[in-house]
Each structure stands twice: as C-alpha cells, then as structure tokens.
C-alpha cells in the first residue's frame, strides 16, 4: 500500500493530500530514510512523522484498504 494512503487509512494524518504534502516536504521517514508518498509500506516498517517540534514514531502492524475509526489504531503501534 502507498505511504500516503496508509497514513490516511490509519488516521495518523487526517487527509491524503496532507499526507502527500508532508511526504513531499521530507517530514516522513520510512525505516530511517526520507520517503516519497508513493513508497510501498509493508508490515514491520517503522514510520516517523515530524509534526513541527513533535515527532511520532510508529511500527506498521497491519495493512487494510479501509478501516473503521475504532479499528484504525490496530494498524500501527507507537514506539
């Protein structure tokens, strides 16, 4: 699954266009490397997102095309 779509489905970032812009700005890292929005994400990958001064680091646990709001937190684990 594309990185921008995973960020939206997992609700780490609210909109796909915002996720796309964050990737273009170089604020999203996958396994320690700056990632474009088109990078394929798989289970076990570590995603790091920089929100201003705050950094969020998560591990991908599952990949789903769609998910309910309650189940979105099952897709990743905070590190």
Describe this entry's structure for a reader.
The chain contains two helices and five strands. The chain is an alpha+beta fold. The chain has one domain (3-78): Roll (Structural Genomics Hypothetical 15.5 Kd Protein In mrcA-pckA Intergenic Region, Chain A).
Summarize the structure.
Helices cover 20% and strands 27% of the residues. With 79 residues, it is α+β, with helices and mostly antiparallel strands.
Distance between the termini: 21 Å
Cα Rg: 11 Å
User: Rough shape?
Assistant: globular
| Largest β-sheet summary | 5 strands, antiparallel
CATH topology term: Structural Genomics Hypothetical 15.5 Kd Protein In mrcA-pckA Intergenic Region, Chain A
CATH architecture descriptor name: Roll
CATH superfamily: RNA-binding S4 domain
- The total of helices stands at 2
Structural category is alpha+beta
Question: What's the helical proportion of residues?
Answer: 10-25%
* Strand composition percent: 25-35%
- Low-confidence stretches are none
Task: Give the strand order, joined by hyphens, for the main sheet.
Answer: 2-1-3-4-5
The average pLDDT is 94
How do the SSEs run, as a string of H and E?
HHEEEEE
Total number of strands: 5
Number of folding domains?
Answer: 1
CATH class: Alpha Beta
SSE layout and pairings?
Layout: H1 3-9, H2 16-24, E1 28-30, E2 33-34, E3 46-51, E4 54-60, E5 76-78
Antiparallel strand pairs: 1-2, 1-3, 3-4, 4-5
InterPro entries: RqcP, S4_RNA-bd, S4_RNA-bd_sf
Protein name: RQC P-site tRNA stabilizing factor
Domain RNA-binding S4: 1-64
